[in-house]
Specification:
This protein has 127 residues and is mainly alpha-helical. The chain contains five helices and no strands. Helix 1 packs antiparallel against helix 2 and helix 3 packs antiparallel against helix 4. The longest helix has 33 residues. It is globular and about 55 Å long.
């Protein structure tokens, strides 16, 4: 299942820029349908891992279930904050590649390997 999820993530990263460019001038309902179409497989594969893992863990060690829920919640919050920080500092393309890559960090080896171009980060204008 992990291999299928990684394949879907790689396909999503490759296809998304083309889909966005192709549908950028389309009406909003069409863009919504396009977004749902490319996000559905990704959400399906990524959404299955935790429930399946919790099912196995609750059978093997039921006392760990609350700790696993807590760890899931904490890492979800920390990962979203880290992703926003990387996107603001390095650009959204780098944030996506870091999330899909082998480990977090603004200097991921995926940047040079995949030739990800850094998008100009949004900086607040100072009057």
């Amino acid at each position: 299942m992990l291999g299928a999820m990684l394949a879907v993530l790689a396909a999503f990263g490759t296809i998304t820029p083309f889909v966005v460019r192709f549908f950028e001038s389309s009406p909003t309902p069409v863009r919504i349908i396009a977004a749902v179409t490319i996000l559905l497989p990704l959400g399906l594969f990524m959404g299955m891992a935790f429930p399946l893992g919790m099912k196995v863990a609750s059978r093997r060690a039921p006392t760990l279930t609350p700790w696993l829920w807590g760890a899931n919640g904490a890492t979800s919050v920390l990962a979203s904050v880290l992703t926003v920080a990387i996107a603001v500092d390095r650009g959204s393309g780098i944030a996506w590649v870091d999330g899909d890559g082998p480990g977090p960090g603004p200097t991921s080896p995926w940047e040079s390997t995949l030739g990800v171009q850094r998008l100009r980060p949004m900086r607040p204008s100072v009057p």
